[in-house]
Amino acid sequence: MSSGFEPSPKTSVVTGDIANTLKQEGFNVRVVYPEPVGDLKKTDWNDVLIHKGKESIQVQFSGVTTPNKADLFDINSALKADKQPIIRESIKSEMHIKNDASFKSEIARSQQRIKEMEMEL
Questions:
Q1: Can you give the residue range of the structural domain that contains 119?
Q2: pLDDT by residue (tens digit) across 70-100?
Q3: Which segment of 8-17, 30-39, 60-69 scores lowest on mean pLDDT?
Q4: pTM for the structure as a whole
Q5: What is the DSSP letter of 16?
Q6: Phi, psi (rounded to 5 degrees) for 100
Q7: Longest Cα–Cα distance in the chain
Q8: Which pLDDT score is estimated for 87?
């Protein structure tokens, strides 16, 4: 975190939660917030770029290492694997609904009503 600057409480909570989750997964995490720009009430990295230039961003990020492609692939794979059970359950639920007789008859009634409305036009 940059010295002398504290982000909004909401930003701190959300960013802190994400950082802690990644740390629990074994990732080395460091959160860097932009230093305030002039009299702006809030500052994001785009403000730093516009008002102070890319050199200021480079200075503020000095000492920060970025993950290599293999690390990014591992993160992406972990996120996808974590979502797979939810996706499978959704598909099972959809299949159950689509195979339900009352659902099929409701769809047939709706399609018939659409045809009738089209004929009226």
A1: 67-121
A2: 777 777 777 666 655 555 555 555 656 666 7
A3: 60-69
A4: 0.46
A5: H
A6: -75, 130
A7: 71
A8: 53
pLDDT band at 53 (very low <50, low <70, confident <90, very high): very high
How far apart, in whole angstroms, are the C-alpha atoms of residue 70 and residue 65?
Answer: 14
What distance in Å separates the CA atoms of residue 64 and residue 47, rounded to the nearest whole number? Answer: 20
CB 64 within 8 A of CB 32: yes
Give the C-alpha distances (Å, rounded to integers) separating 71 from 67, 77, 78, 81: 6, 10, 11, 15
**Same domain assignment for residues 58 and 109:** no
Q: How many domains does the chain have?
A: 2
Candidates 24, 29, 14; CA nearest to 78 is: 24
**Is 52 found in the same domain as 71?**
no
Query: Residue 105 has which token pair?
Result: 């008859």
- Pairwise CA distance, residues 36 & 107, whole Å: 57
How is residue 57 written in tokens?
A: 């961003």
**Averaged pLDDT, 3-30:** 79
Half-sphere exposure of 36 (CA within 13 A, CB side): 11
**Helices first, then strands: H and E counts in the chain:** 5, 0
